[in-house]
Amino acid sequence: MPRIVIDVMPKPEILDPQGKAIAGALPRLGFTGFSGVRQGKRFELTIDSEVTEEILEQAKQAAQTLLSNPVIEDVVNVEVIDD
Predict the structure, then answer these.
(1) Which residues lie across from 42 on neighbouring strands?
(2) Cβ partners under 8 Å of residue 63, min gap 6
(3) Cα–Cα distance between 24 and 47 in angstroms, integer?
(4) CA dihedral over 27, 32, 34, 38, signed as positive or negative
(5) Are 79 and 5 in contact (CB under 8 A)?
């Protein structure tokens, strides 16, 4: 069944305390070379039939109105994965 994957990230000007906490923990755990972390959300919408332009447009609208908070988040990726 195909899936539509939607990635949502905080807008660049929005503070990301979870990302900061992860960035602080990485060197303590021996992971070096990373200068920052931003944490976002990933949604997977399973489709029972083929992905049409109409279904893809509905997924994009859902991402903008339900899956993200447009005041503080951006929808950065909408991708079809055909398994």
Answers:
(1) 7
(2) 6, 8, 43, 75, 78
(3) 39
(4) negative
(5) yes
Condensed to tens digits (0 to 9), the pLDDT of residues 21-49 reads 999 999 999 999 999 999 999 999 999 99
* Residues linked to residue 78 through DSSP beta bridges, in sequence order: 6
User: What stretch of H or E contains 82?
Assistant: strand 73-82
CA distance 82 to 51: 9
Residue type, 53: E
pLDDT at 82 over 80: yes
Cα separation, 30 vs 52, in Å, equals 45
Phi and psi at residue 19, to the nearest 5°? -65, -40
Kindly report the backbone phi and psi dihedral angles of residue 71, in degrees, each rounded to the nearest multiple of 5, phi listed first.
-70, -40
Which two tokens mark 20?
Answer: 């900061």
